[in-house]
């Protein structure tokens, strides 16, 4: 123990912290990932049918888009606090709040993606005898995928950042570590948790980009060098 | 419904509006940090985005900055500022965190707005002998205005909503009403605080829409 301990001197970067509290960091990271994945998947499961409903019945467009936009103006801090009476101090509380935020992005992008499908493509498929369900599943959704995936990436990255605010009810993943470190000015923990949070967002974004490329091989051919 | 009437009662209690923790003070702080952050972010991001759009370069930069921006957890940034010497600098930590948060959408929309201007119009202007600066001012800027304004509006709404997070690290603004209510299990106060922030965000959006219309109207009159 000859060397000065960086935990005692409260350095920003501290190997000792990473060594001794690795488990705590991993737990927080896993909670963060779990909350984000659950939120985005649920939001997607709600947003796509909502977008399809809006497209089929345009008179729902105003209320649905208006409501999701209004939800976006509710501050995250308040959203988590307001949902408290319904869910208690649970992960479901944070997930519900984050779903409501992700909805705005996902509904809009799903609609934009479907609107970008060329009308002649749609007509050609109909002329070939495609029913509306098969048209949606085999033609429209694949063609809408790039815009939809862009929305999923946006929603995922902002959900990862927003999850930290969930620490107000003790379910903020890495945000919990930040909140715990704040009163004692524990710099190493604060920096490690913040950096991990940003790294998580960047990793998720890259993974989703890779998934998008896998799912839309035709887009790659079109933009390949010399393909123009 | 009880919560709504309780929140209304809380909001209409005169004593809650005055004093150091009163709504008046918190509203002033909120408007100050949001306004300052938005102005600084616009001053930095808009010229850069418009210029890159005019050059047609840096598209990857503009788009990637926007993605990275979304990845920045405002709470983490604020917390880091609060353990740095910046904590003694008044509202500076909140303003700087919000500037970082607001810049990406402003930059991206400014870039995309100029980039998506009909190239035929730009070529026509060049064919008429306009210089780069003239094309930028007379063709690209007016045609890009709607997209740029959309960016400003969404940045403004998000900044107003996000400024509440400042309360989590002890900085000012309407978020303090929410955290104070939260600490005392006063749901009415939490609802009241949320309503105040949402109303402020909608008001800001309304003012920006009105200002945009007024500006567009002025333009049409002077050009006639």
TrEMBL record, chain A:
It holds the Pfam family BPD_transp_1. It is a multi-pass membrane protein. The chain crosses the membrane at residues 29-53, 60-80, 86-107, 143-170, 190-211. InterPro entries: ABC_transp_perm/SBD, MetI-like, MetI-like_sf. GO terms for cellular component: plasma membrane. Residues 29-208 form the ABC transmembrane type-1 domain. One of its GO terms (biological process) is glycine betaine transport. Keywords: Membrane, Transmembrane, Transmembrane helix, Transport. It comes from the Bacteria. It is found in: Cell membrane; Membrane. Belongs to the binding-protein-dependent transport system permease family. This is ABC transporter permease. It comes from Streptomyces vietnamensis.
Automatic annotation (TrEMBL), chain B:
The chain crosses the membrane at residues 31-53, 60-83, 95-114, 155-178, 190-211. It is a multi-pass membrane protein. Gene3D superfamilies: MetI-like. This is ABC transporter permease. InterPro entries: ABC_transp_perm/SBD (IPR051204), MetI-like (IPR000515), MetI-like_sf (IPR035906). It is found in: Cell membrane; Membrane. GO terms for cellular component: plasma membrane. It comes from Streptomyces vietnamensis. It comes from the Bacteria. Belongs to the binding-protein-dependent transport system permease family. Its main location: membrane. Residues 27-208 form the ABC transmembrane type-1 domain. Keywords: Membrane, Transmembrane, Transmembrane helix, Transport. One of its GO terms (biological process) is transmembrane transport.
């Amino acid at each position: 123990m000859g060397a000065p301990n960086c935990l005692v001197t409260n350095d920003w970067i501290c190997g000792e912290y990473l060594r001794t509290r690795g488990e705590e960091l991993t737990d927080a990271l896993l909670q963060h990932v779990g909350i984000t994945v659950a939120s985005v998947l649920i939001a997607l499961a709600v947003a796509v049918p909502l977008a399809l409903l809006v497209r089929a019945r345009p008179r729902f467009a105003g209320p649905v888009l208006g409501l999701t936009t209004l939800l976006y103006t509710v501050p995250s801090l308040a959203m988590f606090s307001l949902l408290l009476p319904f869910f208690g101090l649970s992960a479901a509380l944070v997930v519900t709040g984050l779903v409501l935020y992700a909805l705005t992005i996902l509904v809009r992008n799903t609609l934009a993606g479907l609107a970008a499908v060329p009308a002649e493509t749609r007509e050609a498929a109909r002329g070939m005898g495609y029913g509306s369900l098969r048209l949606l599943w085999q033609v429209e959704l694949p063609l809408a995928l790039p815009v939809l995936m862009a929305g999923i990436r946006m929603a995922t990255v902002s959900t990862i950042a927003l999850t930290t605010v969930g620490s107000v009810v003790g379910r903020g993943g890495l945000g919990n570590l930040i909140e715990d470190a704040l009163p004692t000015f524990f710099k190493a923990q604060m920096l490690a948790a913040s950096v991990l949070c940003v790294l998580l967002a960047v990793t998720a974004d890259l993974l989703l980009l890779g998934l998008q490329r896998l799912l839309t091989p035709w887009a790659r051919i079109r933009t390949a060098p010399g393909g123009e | 419904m009880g919560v709504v009437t309780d929140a209304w009662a809380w909001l209409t209690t005169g004593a809650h509006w005055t004093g150091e923790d009163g709504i008046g003070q918190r509203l002033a702080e909120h408007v100050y940090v949001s306004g300052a952050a938005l102005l600084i972010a616009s001053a930095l991001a808009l010229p850069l985005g418009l210029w890159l759009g005019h050059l047609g370069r840096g598209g990857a930069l503009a788009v990637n900055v926007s993605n990275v921006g979304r990845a920045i957890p405002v709470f983490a940034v604020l917390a880091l500022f609060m353990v740095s010497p910046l904590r003694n600098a008044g509202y500076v930590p909140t303003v700087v965190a919000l500037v970082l948060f607001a810049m990406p959408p402003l930059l991206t929309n400014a870039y995309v707005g100029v980039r998506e201007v009909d190239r035929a119009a730009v070529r026509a202007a060049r064919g008429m002998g306009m210089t780069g600066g003239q094309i930028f001012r007379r063709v690209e800027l007016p045609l890009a205005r709607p997209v740029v304004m959309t960016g400003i509006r969404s940045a403004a709404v998000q900044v107003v909503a996000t400024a509440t997070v400042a309360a989590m690290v002890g900085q000012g603004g309407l978020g303090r009403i929410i955290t104070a209510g939260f600490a005392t299990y006063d749901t009415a106060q939490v609802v009241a605080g949320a309503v105040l922030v949402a109303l402020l965000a909608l008001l800001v959006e309304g003012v920006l829409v009105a200002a945009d219309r007024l500006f567009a109207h002025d333009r049409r009159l002077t050009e006639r």
